């Protein structure tokens, strides 16, 4: 999870159960799509030259991954092995290697080999077998029958859990507590000397306007267009007014915004101004989003009272 998504959800979390689940889902979806768009920008505008044979290797690996997906291979091992090769090939091709992660995520199956109903019936039957295997001392170690049922339950749980979800659970802790903090800190290196002057730089002003106006307005207009064209619907219990606060939180941009700024202005004195614009713009967007949502919740509470 990127730090901008985590920050936005953390602000929503301050309101506890008063915030509808639909608002959290909408914000998460917006943030994920936003990061995917950022990766596409990196792929298109940060690629200076392309190595054909490496790009061909990446295409071949991608084809193999699609075959695995097509035949519903549920083991993560072949996906991760080929994914490592895909990362190397994309990196050597000249395209930014972050694209490899997006491509790999697209082919890891989100389907399971059994559904929730099948798992429930299987688990209940296995638990009955577990109870019948009791030897009287309540120790699984002395009951071969209970040991077998434990393996059966583990297999049933694996079958009902999509590979994509298993990978997400596996990566969550190392990414949340190690990768993302290191990534954010390494990209946010910014001195406070002359900070005020940095903010008046046109680059910083443009970034702040993009985060504070461009993103919220774009989110609302795009959502309106999608609903108008019957391409999507607002989440349950979420009105158009609720979208405004979420749109402001969508203006928070740390991880990918800092990353793109680093790629765009690396080696230039404008990099410091770009980072200053990202940090201030994101902070103000978070504050405005918090105040907006808090006001909406108070009006709802007053109406009920």
What does this 3D model show about the protein?
By secondary structure, the chain is mostly helical. It has two domains: 3-46 and 173-304, Na+/H+ antiporter like domain (Na+/H+ antiporter like fold, Up-down Bundle), CATH 1.20.1530; 116-160. Helix content is 75%, strand content 0%. Helix 1 (3-13) runs parallel beside helix 13, helix 2 (21-45) packs parallel to helix 12 and helix 11 packs antiparallel against helix 13. The longest helix is centred in the C-terminal third of the chain and has 35 residues, at 270-304. The relative contact order is 0.13.
Spell out the blueprint of helices and strands:
Elements: H1 3-13, H2 21-45, H3 52-70, H4 76-93, H5 98-107, H6 116-132, H7 144-160, H8 163-187, H9 195-199, H10 202-228, H11 240-249, H12 255-265, H13 270-304
Helix pairs in contact: 1-2, 1-13, 2-12, 3-4, 4-5, 6-7, 8-12, 10-11, 10-13, 11-13, 12-13
């Amino acid at each position: 999870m990127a730090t901008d998504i985590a920050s936005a959800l953390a602000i929503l979390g301050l309101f506890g159960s008063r915030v509808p689940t639909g608002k959290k889902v909408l914000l998460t979806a917006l943030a994920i799509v936003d990061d995917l768009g950022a990766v596409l920008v990196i792929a298109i505008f940060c690629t200076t030259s392309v190595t054909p044979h490496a790009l061909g290797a990446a295409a071949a690996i991608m084809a193999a991954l699609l075959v695995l997906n097509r035949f519903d291979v549920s083991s993560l091992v072949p996906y991760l092995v080929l994914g490592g090769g895909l990362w190397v090939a994309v990196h050597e091709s000249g395209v930014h290697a972050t694209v490899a992660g997006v491509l790999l995520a697209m082919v890891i199956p989100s389907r399971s080999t059994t559904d929730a109903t099948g798992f429930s019936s299987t688990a209940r039957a296995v638990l009955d077998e577990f109870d019948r295997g009791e030897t009287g001392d309540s120790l699984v170690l002395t009951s071969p029958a209970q040991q077998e049922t434990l393996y059966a339950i583990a297999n049933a749980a694996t079958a009902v859990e999509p590979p994509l979800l298993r990978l997400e659970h596996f990566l969550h802790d190392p990414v949340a507590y190690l990768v993302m903090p290191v990534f954010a800190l390494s990209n946010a290196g910014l001195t406070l000397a002359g900070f005020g002057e940095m903010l008046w730089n046109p680059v910083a002003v443009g970034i702040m306007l993009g985060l504070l106006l461009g993103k919220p307005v774009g989110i609302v207009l795009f959502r309106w267009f999608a609903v108008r064209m019957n391409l999507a619907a607002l989440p349950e219990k979420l009105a158009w007014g609720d979208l405004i606060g979420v749109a402001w939180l969508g203006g928070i941009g740390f991880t990918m915004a800092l990353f793109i700024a680093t790629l765009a202005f690396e080696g230039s004195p404008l990099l410091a101004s770009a980072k200053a614009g990202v940090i201030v713009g994101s902070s103000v967007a978070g504050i405005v989003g918090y105040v907006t949502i808090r006001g909406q919740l108070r009006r709802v509470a007053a109406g009920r009272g």
